[in-house]
Every structure is written in C-alpha cells, then in structure tokens.
Amino acid sequence: MALSDLSLEDLEKLDLTLHEPAGLDEFWARTLSAADAHPLDVHREPVVTHLTTLRHEDLSFAGYDGHRINAWLVLPAGAEGPLPAVVEFVGYGGGRGLPQDRLTWASAGYAHLVVDTRGQGAAWGSGGATADPVGYDVSTPGFMTRGILDKDTYYYRRVFTDAVRAVRAARSLPEVRADAVCVAGASQGGAIALAAASLSPDVRAVMADVPFLSWFRRALQITAVEPYTEVVRYLSVHRDHVERVLDTLDHFDVAHLVPRATAPALISLALMDRVCPPSTVWAAYRRYGGPAELSVHPFNDHEGGQTHQWRRQLEWLSALLTAPGASA
Amino acid sequence: MALSDLSLEDLEKLDLTLHEPAGLDEFWARTLSAADAHPLDVHREPVVTHLTTLRHEDLSFAGYDGHRINAWLVLPAGAEGPLPAVVEFVGYGGGRGLPQDRLTWASAGYAHLVVDTRGQGAAWGSGGATADPVGYDVSTPGFMTRGILDKDTYYYRRVFTDAVRAVRAARSLPEVRADAVCVAGASQGGAIALAAASLSPDVRAVMADVPFLSWFRRALQITAVEPYTEVVRYLSVHRDHVERVLDTLDHFDVAHLVPRATAPALISLALMDRVCPPSTVWAAYRRYGGPAELSVHPFNDHEGGQTHQWRRQLEWLSALLTAPGASA
Amino acid sequence: MALSDLSLEDLEKLDLTLHEPAGLDEFWARTLSAADAHPLDVHREPVVTHLTTLRHEDLSFAGYDGHRINAWLVLPAGAEGPLPAVVEFVGYGGGRGLPQDRLTWASAGYAHLVVDTRGQGAAWGSGGATADPVGYDVSTPGFMTRGILDKDTYYYRRVFTDAVRAVRAARSLPEVRADAVCVAGASQGGAIALAAASLSPDVRAVMADVPFLSWFRRALQITAVEPYTEVVRYLSVHRDHVERVLDTLDHFDVAHLVPRATAPALISLALMDRVCPPSTVWAAYRRYGGPAELSVHPFNDHEGGQTHQWRRQLEWLSALLTAPGASA
Amino acid sequence: MALSDLSLEDLEKLDLTLHEPAGLDEFWARTLSAADAHPLDVHREPVVTHLTTLRHEDLSFAGYDGHRINAWLVLPAGAEGPLPAVVEFVGYGGGRGLPQDRLTWASAGYAHLVVDTRGQGAAWGSGGATADPVGYDVSTPGFMTRGILDKDTYYYRRVFTDAVRAVRAARSLPEVRADAVCVAGASQGGAIALAAASLSPDVRAVMADVPFLSWFRRALQITAVEPYTEVVRYLSVHRDHVERVLDTLDHFDVAHLVPRATAPALISLALMDRVCPPSTVWAAYRRYGGPAELSVHPFNDHEGGQTHQWRRQLEWLSALLTAPGASA
Amino acid sequence: MALSDLSLEDLEKLDLTLHEPAGLDEFWARTLSAADAHPLDVHREPVVTHLTTLRHEDLSFAGYDGHRINAWLVLPAGAEGPLPAVVEFVGYGGGRGLPQDRLTWASAGYAHLVVDTRGQGAAWGSGGATADPVGYDVSTPGFMTRGILDKDTYYYRRVFTDAVRAVRAARSLPEVRADAVCVAGASQGGAIALAAASLSPDVRAVMADVPFLSWFRRALQITAVEPYTEVVRYLSVHRDHVERVLDTLDHFDVAHLVPRATAPALISLALMDRVCPPSTVWAAYRRYGGPAELSVHPFNDHEGGQTHQWRRQLEWLSALLTAPGASA
Amino acid sequence: MALSDLSLEDLEKLDLTLHEPAGLDEFWARTLSAADAHPLDVHREPVVTHLTTLRHEDLSFAGYDGHRINAWLVLPAGAEGPLPAVVEFVGYGGGRGLPQDRLTWASAGYAHLVVDTRGQGAAWGSGGATADPVGYDVSTPGFMTRGILDKDTYYYRRVFTDAVRAVRAARSLPEVRADAVCVAGASQGGAIALAAASLSPDVRAVMADVPFLSWFRRALQITAVEPYTEVVRYLSVHRDHVERVLDTLDHFDVAHLVPRATAPALISLALMDRVCPPSTVWAAYRRYGGPAELSVHPFNDHEGGQTHQWRRQLEWLSALLTAPGASA
C-alpha cells in the first residue's frame, strides 16, 4: 500500500478550478420541485429483532417520482424524544441490510434512519430492499452508467432526490427534533450525504467519510479500481459519447454541489485510498460551502477511519448539538 | 491453462439428471402468447458504411411487451433473394456494435441479422443500441440477477422472448427464405440461440458455441469467474433466497429447454473453458432434442473455436441447406 | 467463487478418522492446572464512549502464566443483573478494537466480554491491547508457527489457556449469571470458542462460525490462502521438521478437542470458504461431543453468515436459555 | 483503468529529442539493397473459403534473404481492377490466420494483402504460416530479443525488410493500382506499417493504430507489461549489454525512422494504453515526416479504437484517394 | 499453497500406462548416430574468477550438428585427478551464468561441468552463452514449441543430443574418471539429465530434481502455469495440429525414455509443485529402468528440496561411488 | 517491469534533508554499552558437510542482552590464517540456512561468517537457528512492527546490536585478521551491514546491496509491496500511533545512521526495485560518511546485481585490501 494520489502537501497546492455546468441550480430546482408533487407518505412498522436496548421499525417513504424507498428507523429502546437524528446513506452495492446490522447511532441516543439506495444491496452485506422501478438505456454492469447519456435519466438523479426526501421524512417523525437532522455516510453514502446537505436547506450537520462521486473528470483519469472504472469502461466502448457523459456527470459531481451547502461538515480522507483518490475528496472538502473539518488517515486505503472516525463523529456531533445556541 | 472441469472421458460418464421445473412448458407458452399480442412492427433503414460488397440496414422490431429491439440486417450487396438467413445473438455485455463489425455471414451469401441484447452493449466492443425499459428489484452489478426473485420478472424472460421475436422478424423479410432461418451465437449468444431453437418451431438450424446459461445449479458451484458468479454473489448476500433464485433459474436453464428443440444443431465446447465449464455445455449438447454434432476444442478457454469453428459452421450449414430434401 | 472443497453430499461421506495424539488429555490437564496457580485477578475500569444504551468497562485478567489479558466488558446501560453472558474471541489478526466496535450482544441484553488474542490486533480493525510477553524460536511471519516445534512452547497453548481463563473471569462477575456463560467467535474466534468449550466444563453454550484450527493435517494440504499457509511455508523451509510440527498441531486441533465438549453448540460452515475449508469445519461439527446444530451457507466464502448468522444465534441462544429447565 | 502515462496536455509539452543513431540511413540502405538481390518471386494460389462476396488467394513472396513470406490476398469477388490496395501487418504474436479472418478491406472495395510476421502466429488468433529460418543467440522467450546484440542480426531487421518487400509485391499485382498501395496495422502491425512507409518511397498512405516499437529508450523504462518487458527481462540478466542492446534498438525505433516518411498518415493513440504508452506513440506521430492526423481514444487501453477507428480509416482513405489530383 | 495434484497415496494407485511411440528407439539411434559424424572438438580456456579454492575453465564442445555448446568446467583448485564428475544441466530459461555462480560440486571434490542449454539463458540468472543456430517454423514465445510440428525439427532433439555429447565430453577429460561421470539437474535440467542417462550407456548416476518434460499428455491437461502452458497456448491457436504435436512430444517425453536407463537414480518430487505436477514426476520415477530412490518434499512448490536435496545428493553419491565394487 | 521510483537524473536532484532524531547517538551509545556487559562467549563446533575445499563451523556468540546468536563460520579448507573476513547478514525472512548454502567468500579465500537474524529464517531458504527470546506488544504479522511503539523495545534494536557483536566476534577469531573484518549483505542484510558499519568503528569495508530500512518516512509512502507495508498495515489499524511509530523508526533508519560510518562502501541500487525503492537506497548512499561507490542496475527489480554484483565486490574488496597501506 502506498500513496494512491497526491501527498497532503501537494493537495494544498492543487488547482481546484472545476467544470461546474451552467444550469446546475436550475436542474436541481426543477428536479426537486417535481419530486414535491408526491406526498412523503411515510409508512412505519415495528420489527422483531431480539434486541433489548434498541427498537427498530421498517420505515418507507415516497422518493423520486413517488417510488417507495425503504429504510430502518432505529431508536433507543426507552428514549423520550424528540431526539436528534442521523440519516445514513450506504456505500456502493450495499443496502440497509438486516435491522441487526444497524446498532450505532441509536446506541448513542440518536434516532437513526438507514436508507436504502434504490436497486442496490446485492453486492455485499445483508441485502437491500428497494427496487429501482425504472428502465435504462445500455449500461455497463453496475449502477454508475445507468441512464448516463442524459442528466434527466441518470441514475443518481433519482438517488439524490431520494436522499433529500429521506431528510424530509426524518424531519417529519414525532420522535425526531426537526432542527437536528444530520446526514452521514461513507464512500457512496458520504457522497449522497454531501448531496443531501447541498440540496436540502434543513440539514443540521453532515459527516462524510471518503466520499465518492466527487470531481469525476479527474477521478476517471486516475482511478484504476471499481467503481469509477465503470464509467471508463462505458466510454471505452461508447467512444463517441465522451462529452455527453461528462456533461451528465457534471450535474451530479459532489464537488460541484457542495459550495451550496451551509451545515457544518466533518469529512474524512485516506491518503492511500485507491477507490476515492484523496484529491477528489479534497476538492469536496475545500469547495464545501459551510464550516468544514477534515480527518486525514495517512496510511489507510478506502476503509478510511472506520470506528476511529465514528468515535470522532460522536464527539464532534455531540459538541455541535450542545454548543451554546445550537438548537436555535 | 488446464482442464477447467471434467475430461471428455468423464463427461461421457456424467449423470445428466437435471432439475427441470414442473410448469416449464406452460410458463413459456404463457410468456410467448403474451408477446404475440404485439405486432412485430419491423422498421428498416439503410445505413452508409463505405462498404461495397455488403449492404447494411438498421432494423428494429417489437420484442417482449412491444419494446423496440435493434439489429443490423446485412445482405450481400447485389444478392437476388430470397436467401437463407442467420440470426445471431451476442455474448454477455456486448451489443450489435457498429455495422462494420458484422461482415461474416453476408460475405458467405446469407442474410445476417445481428440482434442486440436489451440493456447490454457497454462492456466491450463497439456498443449496443437497445434499452431495457423495465425496472428491477435489488440486483448485483450485471444483468444476471435482474428480477431474479421471480420467473415472471427475470431479465432473461425478456431476452429469450426478444430472440423468438427476432426469428419471427427474420422470417418476415422478403429477402429471406422463411424455411431457412437459422440461429447462432457464442456464449450468451449461443444460449439465446439454443433457447430460440427450443421455443420456436420454425428454426432451421442452430449453431451454438460454448453456450452460457446451461445447468445453472452445477455452474454456480464450479465456476469461479464472471458472469455466473454474479448469481453466487447475489446469493452470498441474500442467503435466504437460495431456493427462490434456483427456481427462477430453472425456467431459463438452456439444458432444461433444449429437449424441446428439433432443428439440427452444431454445438462447440472447450475443455479449458473457465467461463462456461465443459460439463454445463455438455448437458445442453446431450439433452438436445434434435440431431446434434459437437466440436470439441481440447486446449481452449472460453474463446473456443473462433474462426476455426466458423469455418466448420460454413461447411456444416452449407451441407445442411443443400442436402436432398433440405428445402422441404 | 466456486465450491472450495467438498459438496454437502460428499462431506456426509467423508471418513473422519483423525490423528488424535496419545497424551492429549494429560497435556491439557497439566497446562490448565499450571495456569490455576495464578489468581484470576480481574481488574475493571469504566470507559467513556459517548454511548447511552450501553456501558463499557476495560476489563483485564491473568491468563496463561499470569500474563495480563485485556477485554471489553459491555453491559446494557440500565440492566439489572445477573445477566447471561457471551464471551467472544476474535478472528486472526484482529483485536478487541475500540469499545465502540462492540455493540452486539449487550444490545440484546447479555453481558458481553470481548477478549483480546495475545499479540494480535494489528492486522485489521481498530487494534489490540494485549502483549504476548514470550519469545519464540524461528517463525514464519504471523502467529501460526510461533513456538511450533514443541507443544509446550506453541503459541496457541497460551491462547487457549487465556480463553479458559476468560470464561472463568466472566463467571466471576457479579453482573453475570455463572450458569449462563456462553462462548462465541468466528474463524480463529470460533476455534478458540470450541477449545474453551472443550476444556472448560462450565460453558453453557458455544457458537462457532466458520472455525479455524480444525483438522490441521487436511487443512495444510488443501488450503491455498492464509493463514493455514503460514505453516506450509514454515515446512517448505524446515523440511526436516514435518513430523515434529504435525505432532504439535495435533495437540491444538479443534477437531481433536471437541469430543470432550458437552455444551450445546451452533456451528456454521460456508461451502465456498477458501480460508477454513468446509471439510475441516465439518470435522469439528461431526466430532463435537455435545448436541450440535449446523448452519450451512452454500454460496459464501469465509465471511460466512455474518449478521444472518447472528440473527440465528440470537434466536437459538434465547430459546436455549429460556427452555424449561434451562437454568438447572 | 487510469491514464497509463501522460495526459494530452502533458504530451504537448514533452521534449522529443531522441537518440537517432549516426548511420541509420546507411544501415537501411545497405539492408534493403542486399534484399534487392533476390527477385520477388510472387506465388499465388486460389483458396476455397465458402464465401461469395470475396475471393482469397494464398500469396507468397521472397522476403529478407529470399525467405518465403506468406500472405492472404483478398479481393472483392467480382471486382474489375485495378484496385487501390491495403497491405496489412499483424500485431505481436499473431499471424495471417485463416482466410475467413480477413474480410475487412476487400469488403470495402480494396485489394487486401495480409502479411505474416515471420516466426509469429502461435500466440493468439488462428495461426501463422511463415517460418523464421534463422538461428539466434541467447534470447528471452518471445521475439523481441532475438539477435538483439547486433543490429545486423536483429529479428526486426528481417521483419521490416519483409514489409518493404510486401509493399513491392502488392505493387506488382495486376489487380492493384501501383500508385495506391497503402499500409496499415495495429500495435506491432502499426509499427511495421510506419517502418514500411519510412523505408519505401512508394507507399500511398499509412494507417497505424497504437503503434509499438517506438521510442524504445523511454518505453523500456515506463512499460510494465509485455512485450516491451521482454527487453527489460533480457537486460535484467545480461546486465553488461545495456549499451549494445540500446544501440541495436535505436536502428529499429519507429520514432527514429518516421521523419523519413512522406505519405499521409492516420495514427491513433489510447491514453490508457499500458502496452504502448501514449508518449511513445506521440513521438512517432509528432516526428512523422509527412502530413499526419491523430485519433485520440481517451478511455481506451491497448485495444484502442477498434472498429471505430476502422470506420474513420475507411472515410479518411476514401477521401484521400478521391481528392482532386489524388491519382497523380 | 496446497497440493497441486495427487497425494502420495493416490500417486501409488495411478495407472502409468503411457503412450510410448512405436519407433522411439530407432529415432534416437538415428539422431545420435548422425551426431557422431561430428568430432567432439573440446576447447578449454582458463578463466579468472578471484576465487582461490576452485579453478574454472571455459569449456566448449560440438553438440548437435556440430554446433558449439558452451559450459563451465569447475575443479577443486589443487585436486589431483582423475576425479568423479557431475555434468549439470540448467532449468528452463537459464544459462551457465557467470563462473562465480557455480561453486557446488567442485567444492565437494568433483569435476563439475555446467552445460548451457542452446538459445536459453536470458530469462533469469546471469546469462547464457550458447546460440541456437537453427531457424524454426511458427512458435509461441518460449522454447517449448520451436519446431514442434515434426520430431526431426523439434528443439529438444537438439538439446538432448547436446546433453549426450556433454557426457561424452566430460568422459574425455584427463581430470575426470571416465567411469564416474554422473548427470544432474533440476526441472528442465533434471529432464535433460534423465534423457542423457536414458540415451547414454556411460552415465554412472543420475540426480534429477522435480524434472520437467515428463508425461506431456497429462501435464498439458493439469498444469496451469508456465512453461508447459506454452504448448497449450500453441494448440489453442493451431487447433488442427493436436495429434501432430502430441506425436512429436511423445518422442521427447522423459517418462517414455527412462525405461531405457540403467544407472542408479535419485529423483525428487514436490507435492505442491505447480510447474511440474507430482504425477508427471512420479511417472518418470516409477518407469525408470535402473535402481531409483525418491525424495518427497510434501510442502514445497517447484523450488523442491534446494540445498536440503543437494545435501542428500552429496551423501547418496558419495556412498554410491565408494560402495564396494563401485569403480568396477 | 518499469522504473519503480525516480530515474537516476531525478535522484541526483532529490532533496535529502531527513528527519534525524535528536538523541540518536546517545540512544545507540546507551544500547551498545549495555550490550558490553555481556561477554562475547564465542562457541565453535566443526560441522560435517561432505565438502572438501571448505570447512564449516557452527559458531555462536552472545548478542543483545546475552542472547545466543548462531552463525556459520566458513574457511578455505587448508588456509593458513589469519585471513581477511566477511561478516554477512541475511535478507528479510531468511536464516543462515544449511552450511552447504554458504560457499562464496571462503571459496575466494576469506573467512566468512554468516549470521542469523534472530527469530527469522522460516520464510524462505533452508532455515534459521536463532530464537528471539523476547516478547512483544501487539504486532502485524512479520518482524517489522515488533515492539514498534518504543525505540527501546523495537526489534531492530536487538538485531543491530547483534550485528555489532558479530563484527566483534569475527575480530576475536584467531583465523581472522582483526584489521580486515568487512560486512556485507543484501536487502535487510545490506541494511544491517550499513548499521554495523555505522555503529562499529572497527569495520574495514561494507558491501550493501539494495539495502532495506532506509528513509522510512519516504519508503512507507511509496512502497506497495512487502515488507515496508507491514508498518503501513500496522498504522492503518493503529491510526493514533503514527507519530510514535515514526519516532521509533527514526532511530533505526539506516539513512540516519550512515553519516557516522567511515569505512569504504560499495552500495548497489536497482532502478526497478519495488521492495527497496531507489530513492531510499540513494539516500543511504549519498549520506554515507565514508568513501562510497555505487553500482546501478537499471533494469533490475529487487534481485539487484546478484552474481554480477558479487563479481564486482570480489574485485573491489581485493583491490581495497591490497592497496598500498591497506593493512595499516
């Protein structure tokens, strides 16, 4: 294992002029307002887990185009709410899994909403439960190139919209403090969290570990392992569509979206990360619109900070929410 | 490179009692009759290729549920028809490509129809052009597990139906001898060709090289490389769905379908094939309903016989079509 | 991914005559009675974790030769004891990690003791905290060959003794029901759990997932990946020491020890496990002395059943402990 | 897959001062004039192929030192000549294959001569048919280091001379327009085409895809995959022969030869090419003596542009040959 | 690392009926008698090595067709002869190297002749010095398929003849006891040693470690790594030449030749050998014509016994040569 | 194989300001003076080897903390002493092996002492014989991280001290010229030799091939293969200990120690070395305190110069020891 990209010193010097597309705000305004046509329609059902300190519910809501998105809601067993909440998004290929997979934030006293990524969940872990009920044009195996020839049909248009709706769903719960809904995730989950924070004014804080989907134009050139390579493979076949594909990606590039975010952020980066190279994460961190802190893991690959990072998040979030004026 | 499975001697001794599901015929009868509700609606458009000995058309027809399936029709430039025809299906991840990719059968005097596999085409070659306009439940990256929890929603239900419709479309062309429409393909293309021959009474001959999608229950246990492993990966996550998934696959297992075929077949098998292990191909060959010949490539991996095999096909098909009584 | 060893049908037919060494009982009686010379000397210290539903303590006790062994004790925050307990051992190369790594059994109402494996913890996860204060003869990188030329100096002599002492430490805690101390673990952790159950009369139940260290003589011949290969590498250099090394291993082979166990066991096995091949796990299951159940994961590698298996364990253990006469 | 070398921007800035050896022109003049001592002695024999739109001949001619070099001549079946011609050279390890492998240029109305590379053909494809009847000093497995200690004995001295003779043989055919003989090839074939265009005044156009054998001194340092590595492996053993080997290679370096070429050229380069790194191809393009166009494939490895590139070649060559004054 | 083939128990049961070709003896008689037409023509020249206990000479002799074959002759510095001698052949891709590479047998009091393998030497080690001045038909990179379409042109016909001549050269040296010339080698070197012992009546003893070139028909089917795979690759391309190639190989199969040998043999075999699988070595051992001993290395790959084996050879050979009547 | 790091031109420009720790001299003075408390206590025992030109002894001495360190002493059989001596250290994972492994320097007239590295010897070769009788804190598999949290407990503190003692032991032998004791080794052995030359005033010359353990802070960032990666893996788990670990390593960094050396040095470096990247070796060479020569192997990986380099060492050392005033 060696540095996968630039050293920290070289990151500092990196030119971060990116390729933000002209109608980015309009595109997302149009997208989200179309989603508003569908009521949230939150369903909740208790789940038997054999656990005693936590209680789980199978929660779903209407996401993009009203499609049903599934999640687990986890609460401390005897908690008197309303509680601050963490809405968590999942890494590439994973799903919300089994309820017993998700013990973390609720064990720390938060309401925890673990949201499926549509269509994903069958690559690792304990599975997903949310269909992607939309067909697509020709794609490379994986999710990265579904509908990639047009920003209106791109897979992540649906996913990011689902995420904004998940925040809204969390805010609607009686057990949750609507002014303390945070978003979190690692890798793809971190990217979705950053997107949600950029597109939702109501997010209280964002914790994004080794986020994916950032600075696509650079990532495609320097990343030799999956899943950025799905797009490279697509373009190695569809040699005529390079500009069209890059234009689509520009509208979903987290490094383009984050200047719009305002909530405090804790971002982590691993200097030996071969999946989400440090420079791409760095761009998201440096261009982030709100106050941002960075955790650097100098000797880690894409596994990043794992529980070390969660420990830091527990402290950071607790301090944030209990700071003077925090609940204002 | 070494034998990937059994030697030829051990193949001969292999027990080929398979797991054909009860309602197989009914399922396909129902599926194909539902497809009949849609007219074929063949569209044709000439294509400029800078070639002089061949002419190409961009041909499409209505496949499963009326979805538009694209193909290239290639004809010898000055041919006076009607000609015998070869309908070719493509290997996993590939598409019909560019017109200039397809010079073979028409150069030998056949009408040649190269049919896209819906949603595929962006993994290798020159691309595909046919969307798969249907959403799916959670799946592993790739096409193998799309809709796999139910035979009615499984991806290959659509693909095999498209293939039957492609044969029908070929038979409808004025340049084609309706009594001499053959099917061909390698790997996934060979499996689709065998399925088409099993489900269409009208196929004149089938040429299937190192066919995929055969004897799933064995293939999943002995194959260590993609794409059978997509299903294994799915089941490694969705540990509770083993029986449901195997039941779905049983309805699309080429080794279950081929006893229904009657057209003469030329099948090839490679003894060092790691992608489609010899025993799985052997099962399709031995259980095939019509007269079948086998080409064995003892020292090849999944590339099989390549042009050596095509040369044999050229001779075999020519002999078949010119045999006394061949056009009866 | 394919079957890594025998199919379930072939496992059933496998000859399980093993190579149990003559003085096995005497060796362990001598070893454990020497350990008895050291008082348990349990130390406990509360840990701040920012968690609310659980409380953690940093617990240590005197293991082999009085060496200090560290563990986390995790308890449901407001639990009124005494509680049934699960003593968990860790997989090869891992350590007890951070307190926040360990939320499982206590969230289900158990006292949970997560025990370090001496010297290990720096290969994955969040780290270990227990030294192995003993020097060794020449060894291959790793822990498998430390002191391997003599059963008296072998590394796992210390580790298994530490485990027996861990059970004893758990039984001594006022929060714990001494008649309901169970052991658990996966891979190396599963092997240690089986060893503890075989060497401690007081274990109430054992849950061992894809256990390691079983049927060494076969494992060394059929396993191509780490860590069994550490021993192979050792023997590829020290070609003269084969018999000596195998004799040592015979004294630590879980398949030799388990006939002595009597507590109910739930064991899991994965048919595509390349690290701990199914036949080696099967031997431990079939030779187990008490009532044993087996979970088979047909499409998994060494990750085995993960949370699916834990869910089954939660149900199995709950049923076991609440069965009529369970506390007798 | 990532950039394998420099980005396009950095290629533009690259210093292309190379290491052209002193007597390069004299060496090749001497070599080719020695070859002139042998009459071309073209043999032709019809081949049965079962194809109807094309006819194939087994053609051979006397190459270096009069050695017999085999080729396929492919013609549109009913063509009235004389036709423009494409002489094609083959990639490393391949041969002319079977006649049925070669349908491309003749289907577009050209006379097509596919020339074997002596001794090669048994690494992929359908085989070669031309011996290399010359012994060599010690070499690394492969063809790259045969006779490498002296420019007079080096393998490619024979191969490049064979290529010049192949152009001459094509020009001698009655079906061919002697003023419209072009050369083409990919990888090694592209390098041989460039060499032929540099050493033959009579070439009408050259089409070289991802050409090999260019800027050896740089390629040996930056290429980690075969076949440039054959030379590296040779030098890792014969540590004393570095200067001697580099001197030999300097005489066969396509980047040294191409300033002598004058025919229009269409060259392609792939930015993720690990076999023939972009900078080495770039050097051949930039130093090319005649008018040169470049196709860049930004997301391809050594497969380059494949049929996309052929489509471009069809258009480019057609425009070139039909331009006003083209036949002058 | 795991067993690469059969266990020792299963080797014992293996059917060793092989495919010895009809005219094998005639072929070799004819080959060797043709070689007899050339005088041995031994040249010797002292070499400066900076060593004090040994002295080296650069020795060459006329091999197949009179081609010059180079060797090192190493002698104990002050030895009073004549000495028993060991003629050593080298593993695939290696050469005699530098004189300083060869200190073993002469340090034990033997005359040591290290013989180059024609054309080889540039793949590892310190190099070779012997050309293979013969051209060949199409071949796969490497030496295994040179001239493979005919037993008369096959590469190893030359190599084995060179080896018989090397024994003769050693016997002709005044420093050497002509009745005590032994042959030795590992891998390819072991195969050549066995061939020399089978084809030369004058060999006193043979020491062959993990010999190559034995039981080709089986080796090609079960070996997944180089260099047996060179032949597989050849046949994967030249699919029509399988029988012709196997017939050629039958004439050079060490397992076919060894029944003719009579000198005592010490052979070694490694049960995890992936290059020369145990069953192929076993065949050579079991079919050996003279008295044969076997060293088994149960946990080694193709490195076999290395110095452990040499130590055994030193003892075995010393005992053999000093046995009562040994010099008769 | 490609350049693994910088080219020779770029090495010349590299900034070699390193991170030498404050109390380095004091640390080593304290360490070595503590070792002085133990008498050398050299034991010698003849070994039977069946060799005639050399005689071997099994020699041991008291190393760090009086621990017994084993070595082979090899002498020319009939040599009249006292002789110059070479003390050789071994590469990572290897041991002194069998006596028959070690024929080199004694065959050139030197007394040769081959010293075990404590605890190592079971990863390759013929084995080691020296225990490391010290326990350690948690470590990653391998030797690199044993005791790494504190310079006082670090593994290489013991190893370097053993090496200084080995030089002293060699100087004490009656067969050895005390003013002509040299040190040598490759990789880890080269690093230990450089450390010994830096910490012992009495070394006459040092020959270090592709030395390891140099410029750790850079090596950890740019090396992707073992064994530097053991430290990276440790730090990927123990994320909190980065500074502590780097501080430890600073005290054993050969590039920090060598400015203290004064004996003439011959160092080699391979430009394609992936294990010990050229820049790290370069730092040791450039910062070396005495007169230093560099051998560069431009096309070699970590195997470096092998016998080519030994030939150069034979000449270099002979010239050094016979230079006018050499024995002064």
Automatic annotation (TrEMBL), chains A, B, C, D, E, F:
Pfam families recorded: AXE1 (PF05448)
Active site: S187, D273, H302
GO biological process: polysaccharide metabolic process
GO terms assigned for molecular function: carboxylic ester hydrolase activity
Highest taxon listed in the record's lineage: Bacteria
InterPro entries: AB_hydrolase_fold (IPR029058), AXE1_dom (IPR008391), CE7 (IPR039069)
Taxonomic path: Bacteria, Bacillati, Actinomycetota, Actinomycetes, Kineosporiales
Residue stretches making up the Acetyl xylan esterase domain: 1-319
SUPFAM superfamilies according to UniProt: alpha/beta-Hydrolases
Residues where substrate binds: Y92
Protein name as annotated: Acetyl xylan esterase
